[in-house]
Design a protein that fits this description.
The complex is a heterodimer. Chain A is of the alpha+beta class. In chain A, about 30% of the residues lie in helices and about 25% in strands. The chains are: A alpha+beta, B mainly alpha.
Chain lengths: ~250, ~120
């Protein structure tokens, strides 16, 4: 068992539901609030549409449908306008105090609390045979910043910045990764940690975390995508520099 | 003004957060070249917020849970920075000291916020 405070996002059910039905970045909260509000929500709108249809008031149906679409459009615009940075979402999140893992090889020591906190859940995985990708921002070995041989990798290739920032929880405001370059690595062996990325807060005044109660509220990068942490990734024996292919990220080419 | 003795350990933690901020971004700091754009949430802002709550806050609302969250958030961010740094921090004595100080602060905050 590895300990060390991962985050467990705990969304309003309406938000989770809307997210799963394929809503894109920037729409989540306002739409959910509209949906949960009895005056503007989908339930009431559906009722209006149904009752209009039963009355044969097709003009009312058209008006109601227009209002609904207009409401969603306004919500989408409002959320995008209010979000402090690309990919950020507003909501409650829950903080998990410990992460239970299957740990057959006694690897827990390679995931110290600081990195355990960046996972919602984590388990040791065999790296061989996978194709791992990561987004980073400098190839200068003497410069500070996210490097090609950093510890956090994904199995997914991200094609736009908000999806990347939201998926693996990299706040733009935190300024630790500008996301200008991407790396691909096909490990031939070794062990790492795999699991869902924990949210990252944007910090005050955008978000507040309660360490004792284990929850927070505010703007966060949601996380939730599968990520891989490679312990001691900086050692050339773990990730040989020659094994990494580097290219610009699609959004930095634009 | 409300002065609650339960805030006392948090003033010490605020001092340590500020000390780590100076160690990182001070004139001779390890990340002095980033002093104009420190990694966020910043240690300094967290320390100032905690001090403000210790001076004027009401424990009923602003208890160890919120103070611990404010103190821990910048450390989590820094841990991600170090993990993504490709050995930048592990390569030097000062970098390793930063890692040790973060771990020590995390343990202290964790203990203080679970009282």
């Amino acid at each position: 068992m590895a300990t060390g405070g991962g985050y467990q996002p705990q969304w309003f059910s309406a938000i989770g539901q809307n997210y799963q039905t394929g809503m894109g970045y920037g729409e989540t909260v306002t739409r959910a609030v509209l949906g949960s509000n009895p005056l503007t929500g989908v339930g009431m709108a559906s009722y209006d549409l149904t009752s209009s249809a039963l009355r044969g008031d097709w003009g009312g149906v058209a008006e109601g449908a227009g209002g609904l679409v207009g409401g969603f459009a306004a919500a989408k615009y409002g959320q995008r306008y209010l979000a402090p940075e690309p990919g950020a979402e507003l909501g409650f999140y829950r903080q998990r105090v410990s992460v239970d893992v299957v740990d057959p090889n006694g690897m827990a020591a390679t995931l110290p609390g600081g990195h355990g906190a960046n996972f919602i859940s984590a388990e040791p995985i065999h790296l061989g045979g996978r194709t791992l990708n990561r987004v980073f921002d400098t190839i200068d070995p003497t410069a500070n910043g996210a490097k090609a041989n950093g510890g956090y990798w994904s199995e997914k290739v991200y094609t736009d910045e908000p999806t990347w920032r939201m998926g693996v929880a990299v706040p733009k405001s935190a300024d630790w990764n500008r996301g200008t370059l991407q790396a691909e690595w096909q490990p031939t062996g070794g062990w790492g940690w795999g699991g869902r990325a924990a949210p990252q807060v944007l910090g005050q005044p955008y978000s507040f975390t309660n360490q004792k109660l284990g929850f927070g509220i505010g703007w966060i990068q949601r996380g939730g995508d599968y990520q891989v942490f490679v312990p001691n990734s900086y050692k050339p024996t773990v990730i040989p520099p020659s094994a990494i292919t580097v290219s610009p990220t699609p959004w930095s080419k634009q | 003004m409300k002065r609650d003795p339960r805030y006392a350990p948090w003033l010490v933690i605020a001092d340590e957060l500020e000390g780590l901020h100076s160690f990182l971004y001070g004139p001779d700091g390890y990340l002095a070249d980033r002093s104009d754009r420190p990694y966020r949430p910043t240690l300094l802002e967290a320390a100032q917020w905690i001090r403000r709550k210790c001076a004027t806050g009401w424990w009923y609302w602003w208890d160890e849970g919120w103070l611990g969250g404010a103190a821990m958030d910048p450390l989590r961010s820094l841990n991600h920075v170090i993990g993504d740094g490709g050995g930048f921090y592990e390569a030097s004595e000062a970098g390793r000291e930063i890692i040790a100080r973060i771990e020590s602060l995390q343990a202290r905050i964790d203990a203080a916020s679970r009282r």
